[in-house]
Specification:
By secondary structure, this protein is an alpha+beta fold. The protein is about 30% helix and about 30% strand.
Amino acid sequence: MARVHVRCWQQTYRGLMPDHVLDDPGFVPARQRLWDQVLTAPEYRGHRTAVATADGQVVGVAMTGTPRDDDAAWTRELYVLYLDATHHGSGAGTDLLHAVLAPDEAAALWVADPNPRAQAFYRKHGFTPDGADTIDDDGVTEIRLTRTPT
């Protein structure tokens, strides 16, 4: 999970964030510690986590949890959805999304901007920009997308 998480960041964020962050030799071990904690610590019991596999290898990861905003109008937040670029268009991204978020669930997520492929994927699944944006610690601009069930 950690290796695919880092590989997807390298594929997605190259040019959007500093190379020294993406190529840091401690990046995979740090993500390994994160995933170990998410999968075992009691405070993450309410999270939903899924992986996509191909030929016995993890090729994608997804995770939702409770909203980080106290006044959120949505019930879930998509924290993670990464799929190795070699599997884009395979349906695995949709499978991951549905594994951690019901199609009729109100939800929000933050997505890098620009990231037209991811933004199009989320629009296809009913998410729209709500006007909120931020710049994360690595200098990546992100916009918030939300989905309200109809």
